[in-house]
């Protein structure tokens, strides 16, 4: 979670140059989960995906751990 929060803050801190003189404020939503060791990594990917969509539904620009 700490890495994801640092990434989110770093991206939000600096506007991105979109065109010659157009700056955009960019935010990041992140879904995080721990791999439980199950051989089918798809379970972990599905949980991370669920966390990502929860972050977006909750207002974006946030980290959700599932």
Which features would summarize this protein structure in a list?
single chain; alpha+beta; Alpha-Beta Plaits; two-stranded antiparallel sheet; two-stranded parallel sheet; 2 helices
Tell me which oligomeric state these chains represent: single chain
Would you give the CATH topology?
A: Alpha-Beta Plaits
Broad structural category: alpha+beta
Task: Determine Rg (CA atoms, Å).
Answer: 15 Å
- CATH class reads Alpha Beta
Overall pLDDT metric: 93
Helicity, as a percent range = 40-55%
Read across the widest sheet, the strand sequence of neighbours is: 1-2
CATH architecture label name: 2-Layer Sandwich
Q: What is the CATH homologous superfamily assignment? A: Reverse transcriptase/Diguanylate cyclase domain
Distance between the termini: 10 Å
Could you spell the SSE succession in H and E letters?
A: HEEEHE
| Largest sheet descriptor | 2 strands, antiparallel
Give the number of helices: 2
């Amino acid at each position: 979670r700490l890495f994801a929060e640092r990434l989110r803050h770093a991206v939000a801190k600096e506007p991105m140059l979109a065109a010659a003189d157009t700056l955009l404020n960019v935010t990041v939503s992140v879904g995080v989960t721990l791999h439980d060791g199950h051989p089918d990594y798809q379970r972990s990917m599905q949980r991370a995906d669920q966390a990502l969509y929860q972050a977006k539904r909750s207002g974006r620009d946030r980290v959700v751990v599932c």
